[in-house]
Amino acid sequence: MTDLFLAEDARLTERERGLVLEILHKLIREVEAEVRRDLAEQLSRADSVPRELIVELANDDIDIARPILLRSEVLRDPDLIEVVRNRTREHRLAVALRDGLSEDVTDSLVRYGDEDVLVALLRNQDARLSRFASEYLVAESEQTDAFQEPLLRRGDLPPDLAMRMYWWVSAALRRHILLRYPVDALVVDEFIEDCTVHALDNRNRDGAAASESARKLIERIRERRELTPRFMIHALRAGRVSVFTHALAAWSDVTELMARRIVFEGGVESLAVVCKATGIDRQEFELLFLLTRSVTEGRVARSPAAIESSLSLFDRLEQERAMRVLRLWRRRPEYESALQEVPGDRHGYASA
Question: In whole angstroms, what is the distance from residue 153 CA to residue 180 CA?
Answer without folding.
Answer: 10
